[in-house]
Amino acid sequence: MKVGLLSDVHANLPALEAVLEDMPAVDDIVCAGDVVGYNPWPAACLERVREVAAATVRGNHDRTVETPERYRANRMAEAGLEHAKRELSAEGLGWLRELPRATRFADGRYHLVHSHPAPEREDAYVYPEEFPALDRHLDTLAEEEATDLDGLVLGHTHVQGARSVDDRLVVNPGSVGQPRDGDPDAAYAVLDADAGEVDLRRVAYDVDRVAAAVEREGLPERTANRLYRGE
Question: Residues 142, 147, 153, 156: is their CA dihedral positive or negative?
Fold first, then answer.
């Protein structure tokens, strides 16, 4: 079973379009959250993710889109959420509100969550070099579901990576819409759920189109500038 892995789209429609065009044939697509935030196209990205993803979990921006003032200390994040709140329909806001914190896919063998798998650490960043420290949490997830667990997919850091942890695959497909690993190309991954293997992929997109829309919508200039540098 081949599964396309998306995360951290962040309302970047040109990046999402490029990823979906570049993606090889897959059986399913799943999204590890943060569909909205930062960039100019929250409604269009939300609808596209709803169309293509068999499962989507709630990211921190998805969770706070109706309360952007929570990000007052980060003007880029606050402005992106204010824009999303204005642009999204009541139905779209309701869809985000009802997203689960976590779910399973590939016949329940893989766990999908936005950030740290432990609920009490919901917004904690877990970078690829820290994946081995998730070993006990992977055991807990398997025990909670009383089923085999072949892997974990998460996002949040916007840094692409994969590791084998106690024979389980841990993957961050990277950010579609705002990479932060020094590579400006949109990031995603394709998982072979049966083989336990993942292909980490990048694709270029029209950053100039995003920058023009950022200016047009009155979003912070750095929202666009960082995209050119993948930061």
Answer: negative
Separation of alpha carbons 60 and 96, rounded Å: 11
The SS3 call for residue 49 is helix
CA distance 68 to 146: 38
**Alpha carbons within 13 A on the beta-carbon side of 206:** 9
pLDDT, tens digit, 9 for 90 and up, residues 108-120: 999 999 999 998 8
Classify strands 186-192 and 2-6 as parallel, antiparallel or unpaired. Answer: antiparallel
Domain with 210, as residue range(s), is: 2-229
Q: Note whether 18 and 203 are within 8 A (CB).
A: yes
pTM above threshold 0.90: yes
What CATH number does residue 46 fall under? 3.60.21.10
- What radius of gyration do the chain's Cα atoms show? 16
In the chain, the number of structural domains is 1
pLDDT, one tens digit per residue, over 3-48 is: 999 999 999 999 999 999 999 999 999 999 999 999 999 999 999 9
Please state, as a whole number, how many other Cβ atoms lie within 10 Å of the Cβ of residue 78. Answer: 18
- 91 closest CA partner among 54, 59, 46, 40: 46
